[in-house]
Structure formats: C-alpha cells, structure tokens
Amino acid sequence: MSRRARSMLLLLMALSAPAQARDWWADTQDYLASPTRWQVEQWQKLGGVVLLTGLAMQADDAVREGVLANQGPSGDTLAAVGNGWGELDSLAGLTLLGIYGTGLAREDTSLVRLSANGLEAVVLSGLTTAVGKQLFGRVRPAAAVDSKQWFQGQQSFPSGHTTAAFALSTVLAESGTPSLGRRVFFYSLAGLTAFARMYDNRHWLSDTVMGAAIGIHAGRYVTRRHPLAGSEGSVYLLPQPNGVMFVRVWSP
C-alpha cells in the first residue's frame, strides 16, 4: 500500500466510523486551552521538562558527534524502525489501520476507539510541535555549524517524528489495564524514533526530549478524555512492512 493510500485510509477512519464518533473540533479547542486549567503540579512538570531540555542542550553537540561516529548496519535497522514509528504514512499508520480494521471485523468498538485515540493524540501533539518549530526556528544539525543556531526560520525544535511516536506509544501503553511489559515495549519503540532522528542527523538531542514530552502530554490527555475500560483483553496480530506485530488491546 502506498503512503498516500495509507494517509487517505487514516483520514477516512477519522471521519467515517460511527463507533468512534467524537467532536474533533471540541477536543482540539479543549486541548489548546488546557494550560489555562493547570494546577501547580502541571506547571511543576512543565518546569521539569524545560530543565531537562536545557540540560540536554548542553550535550547536543557531543551526542551528535558520538551518534554519527558509531553508525553501522545495526543502527541503520533500528533507525528504519524508529523513523517508521514516527510517521502516520508508515509503520505508525499501518498499526492504527490494523487496530481499526480488527475492530471493524470483530465489531469491537473499543478497538475502533483505541485507533481513534491514537490518531487524535498524534494530530493534537503535532499542533504543539508545529507552533514550536515556527516559534524557535532552530537549524537542523545537518545544516548547522553548532547546536546554538536559533530563530533562523528552520524547523528542528521540537522533533515532529519523536512527538508523534510518543503520542501514539502513550495511547497504546496507557489504555486499558496497566501493564509494565506493554509500557516498556511501546515507550522503547518511541525511544527508537528519537534515536533515529539523531542517527539520521535530522535532530539534536534536546529536540527529541521536548518532542517526547509533548507527545506524552497529548497521549495522556486523549486517554483521559476518551478512556477505555480495563479488562483482560486479547492479543492481535497487526501487519507490518517486514512481518507482524503482537499488540494486546482491551475491551470495556
């Protein structure tokens, strides 16, 4: 299936499934306005993210040199998987379509809602990232002299792929009954996306740190707004470009 075809199917999935009906515009407005309702705890978390990102900035140049100096076949494979998990028209999109299709075939509305939640988290987090890219204008490492080139009309900060990967992984990791193994699997997969963006010299370490934070925030927002009731659930096989992926999902 071509990338354009997958993108069109995802769009149809978002607009046509009655079982996942939701007010996308209302969700978007509520998401964008949510900081106005934050309590002290949320602002403290934001401060922690800013601090962690600032610390990562101090290591940006050194990490870039280290990653680029240690490339090879294994790294290429991991980067390919990571990049795919950060793209709706690649591995991430195939996973959402697999969950969606399984839900339709089994008449399981929880799976349809799960796929909608994943798609919504990616879209909402992308709005925040798009604003950040325009606001900070950071130069990508491949075109930069060093990591301190900001406000140059470029789009390095934050990392969009990392944002999308962590948004989707958060929805899949946190929906339904808590599971340590599921969390480790999906967050590790998103971590591969962060690695891939640095490995391909497309982003600095701090770009991926901020992108991960945005994605996690959006994923948690969506799972709270459209929760799935926990149960023992079932294991499904989802088609992937080079095989299949086992994913456990939950029904109300």
Summarize the topology.
Blueprint: H1 3-16, H2 24-33, H3 40-68, H4 73-85, H5 91-106, H6 109-136, H7 160-174, H8 180-199, H9 205-225, E1 234-240, E2 243-249
Antiparallel strand pairs: 1-2
Helix pairs in contact: 1-5, 3-9, 4-8, 5-6, 6-7, 6-9, 7-8, 7-9, 8-9
Low-confidence spans = 231-237
Order of helices and strands: HHHHHHHHHEE
Shape: globular
- Output the strand order for the largest sheet: 1-2
The helix-and-strand class reads: mainly alpha
Question: What is the mean predicted local confidence, pLDDT?
Answer: 86
Q: According to CATH, what is the class of the domain at 74-249?
A: Mainly Alpha
**Gap from first CA to last CA:** 32 Å
> Into which percentage range does the β-strand content fall?
5-15%
Would you report the number of β strands? 2
What proportion of the residues is helical, as a percent range? 55-70%
Q: Count of helices?
A: 9
What is the radius of gyration computed over CA atoms, rounded to a whole number of angstroms?
A: 18 Å
Largest sheet: 2 strands, antiparallel
The CATH architecture assignment of the domain at 74-249 turns out to be: Up-down Bundle
CATH topology of the domain at 74-249: Vanadium-containing Chloroperoxidase, domain 1
